[in-house]
């Protein structure tokens, strides 16, 4: 018999496999996977602006290219959003000044989430 530890969708299983039969039987109840420490929500940088920049799709923020108080022009890249293994540029919808950045690199966002605001 051979013992293996297998992780399926974050759940850890200890499995014993008998040689020659190919049959697998759980040796014990599943162990809880270690939980990652929850992230603190990023503090909004300054007051909220009047122009909201929303997430166009669900994904993960890879990088933030601007900071609060920075002047931007229409089309300037504010951040990179990864969705379905593709990097998507989130751009300024109009000229203005960045009032707040509401996300940080590594954050997961839903469709329509407010990523930043401009004045």
Describe what you observe in this structure.
This protein is an all-beta fold and 119 residues long. It has no helices and eleven strands. The strands form three sheets. It has a four-stranded antiparallel β-sheet, with no helix packed on it. A hairpin with a 2-residue loop joins strand 7 and strand 8. The radius of gyration is 22 Å and the shape is rod-shaped. The N and C termini lie far apart (67 Å). Mean pLDDT is 81; it is low at 37-46.
Q: Mean of the pLDDT scores?
A: 81
**Sequence of secondary-structure elements:** EEEEEEEEEEE
Distinct helical segment count: 0
Tell me the major beta sheet.
4 strands, antiparallel
Radius of gyration: 22 Å
Q: In whole angstroms, how far apart are the ends?
A: 67 Å
Strand content: over 45%
Contiguous runs where pLDDT drops below 50 for at least 5 residues: 37-46
Question: Total number of β-strand segments?
Answer: 11
The strands making up the biggest β-sheet line up spatially as 4-11-9-6
* Outline type: rod-shaped
